[in-house]
Amino acid sequence: MRGWARRLVWRKTIKFKHCAGCPPSNPLAAVTPSSSPSPAEPQHPAAAAAGGVVGRFAPSPTGPLHWGSALAALGSWLHARRGGGRWLVRIEDLDPPRERPGVAAAQLATLAGLGLIPDGPVVFQSDRHARYRAALDHLLASGAAFPCRCSRADLAATAGVHRACAPVPAGAHRTRSFRFRVPDTLVGFDDPVHGRVEQHLRRDVGDVVLRRADGLWAYQLAVVVDDAAQGITEVVRGADLLDSTPRQIALQRALGLPTPRYLHLPLWRDAEGRKLAKSADAAGIDALPAELVLRRCWSALGQPAEAFPAWHGPEATLARAARVFDPSRIPREGPRGGDNTGAAAPTATARTEPAIRPVP
User: How far apart are CA 278 and CA 74, in angstroms?
Assistant: First the structure.
């Protein structure tokens, strides 16, 4: 393991022993308006780089990095490097029940072995509860967020889409969550791979959870706050998050935060067509040769095999690969087969489908 990864893992190990990463029982009480950090305050020098490209890779520590993870990591790194930009890593460790001890350390070591070295300190979301509280306070004060005691049973009639709170039965004691009051409008963006993507948030999505009833912060709020705080200018990630992007754009507007450019990469699926997932125990790639992993992911990104540079170690090879990487070749559909046999990378499907309008 590289020195930077070892130091970060040691720091987080000590922190977890003291449960500092656990959410407080009353997450809002600890932050007052006068002491709250601004959700948009830069946390990294990259945020102050005028006009610079800043990309990121943000895995959750729920399992080892698999083929789909490697594809997203390489795709985001190449896209940032192609523009002469910086590339950051963020560990999204906000769901302790799903996380596994030691996984964050293993993920950082795997990235280092592939030559994917972040241009600055790795950010852990478990260190950033005060920022999420500040953002929620801002939304509550503006009327864009509200407390909600609706249960899943209450939302069954609307297929889980929240448009108004149901009356709480007399005598019922429910812990409240907090939701974002989505605008009654169409929100869209232009994705270089998928074309125009749009959602009518009120009709198709409903009010978005910001903090769960169990006190854990929801992904949608945390990712918006952290992308702004780190100065992220482009988000390159898997297409499974296409339908999250319009609601994140709406949250950015409500918080007065900038909207980065978005590009969604093809998903790597198993032989049955299911997306590879750490939570489903997809096979990790940490024990595989770096050259094999990078070549297969390069092909899955639609790049010609012959364009991949001669192998001179991961970092030197990737530096040359970034110069010939062509984002216009990225396909909409990814490869199938998530085993670790070392077989040749499946051929990715060309962009033949129409632009989608995702509905969750």
Answer: 17
